[in-house]
Amino acid sequence: MTSIAFLGLGHMGGPMAANLATAGHRVIGFDPMPKALATAREHGIEIATDSITAVADVDIVITMLPTGGHVIAAYQGDGAHTGLLAAAKPGTLFIDCSTIAVDEARTAHDLALAAGHRAADAPVSGGVVGAEKGTLAFMVGASDEDFESARPILEVMGGRIVHCGGSGLGQAAKVCNNMILGITQIAVAEAFVLGERLGLSHQALFDVASNASGQCWALTTNCPVPGPVATSPANNDYEPGFAGALMSKDLGLAESAIELTGVDAQLGRHAREIYQAYADGDGARKDFSGIINTIRAQSADA
Ligand code: NAD
Q1: Which end of the chain is more exposed for a tag (fewer CB within 10 A), N or C?
Q2: What pTM does this model have?
Q3: Atom of ligand 1 nearest to the CA of 100
């Protein structure tokens, strides 16, 4: 049994922490939202009075927070509040599973090491369903030794654990994958709207492209029109799934990485603009495949 502090018991962190408790680990949780605490308690998680108390005597600290700003502020604390790094016992393994920028992940990692701890960035894909089922994919940035320490705990919450390299490279893999996803979802949506204008049925285009070189996850799993894939959000008025606000956030992280590296990623930047506008409108809480409705609405009358 490992003692684990779990901070951030929201949509993702709640079920991830519950799976650790179900597997027999001692999980001490904290979240400022009372509702999240009440649900966590029902799933066998010990509730701490605050995050500092939660981390005081554990082997591992897992964070699942909204942004990199939240992670670094929690690690460091401020003038008035002690940070997690100062409160934990030396040698604690800090695993951050939030989706944050590569440079923020490296900063968090460096701060942890400077405070005498160990660290890994381990963002996930698989969404709330994957968190509940314990089938998340983890992309891990850590030294070989710290990866091996984190692996048995990540295996409780995930189905696929990939060691991507050292500090920040888990986040790098996540940002690159989601940039592909954002671009391809737009491409598939544009193709369906073009097909509509040309008189092509949705099913005919799906039957061809899903067995040809247009095949991709955005088509065969997250098909943006109702019908061809019964489980895609398009069949349920674009209920997420993966919300437009989260895709906009992830493409913002991709854009930061593009700027940091100087890569000529024109489609990545354009996808960021398209999803930012979608999330600023009514797409924030809709699945990101609903971008097809924006494309249809913005298309000129033929
Ligand atoms: P969420 O908003 O549901 O949960 C975040 C929780 O963190 C909230 O309950 C909040 O109260 C809590 N929190 C904030 N500051 C805290 C602190 N200092 N200490 C303890 N708790 C604190 O968000 P989520 O959907 O669970 O996403 C969490 C992270 O996972 C994000 O970085 C997101 O981008 C990433 N992610 C989400 C999904 C998804 O489908 N929801 C998929 C993959 C990755």
Answers
A1: C
A2: 0.94
A3: 32
CA-CA-CA-CA torsion sign (20, 21, 22, 25): positive
Give the pLDDT of residue 277: 98
Asked whether the beta carbons of 3 and 26 are under 8 A apart, the reply is yes
Instruction: List all residues whose CB is within 6 A of at least one atom of ligand 1.
Output: 7-13, 30-33, 36, 51, 64-66, 70, 74, 98-99, 124-125, 127-128, 242, 246, 249
pLDDT at 106: 97
Does the annotation mark 174 as catalytic? Answer: yes
| Whole-number pLDDT of residue 15 | 97
In the prediction, which pLDDT does 10 show?
95
Polymer length of the chain? 302
On the CB side of 92, CA atoms within 13 Å amount to: 26
Distance 218 CA to ligand 1 centre (A): 24
Q: What is the largest CA-CA distance in the chain?
A: 67
Give the pLDDT confidence score for residue 81 in this predicted structure: 85
DSSP one-letter code for 77: B
Instruction: State the distance from the centre of ligand 1 to the C-alpha of 132, rounded, in angstroms.
Output: 14
The interaxial angle of helices 291-298 and 266-280, nearest 10 deg, is: 90
Spatial CA neighbour of 89 closest among 121, 49, 59, 51: 59
Q: Which residues contact 273 (CB under 8 A, 6 or more apart)?
A: none
Tell me if the bond preceding 134 is cis, omega within 30° of 0. no
Going by alpha carbons, the residue nearest to atom 8 of ligand 1 is: 10
Averaged pLDDT, groups of 10, the chain, 302 residues long: 97 97 98 97 97 97 97 92 95 98 97 98 92 97 98 98 98 97 98 98 98 97 97 96 95 96 98 98 96 97 78
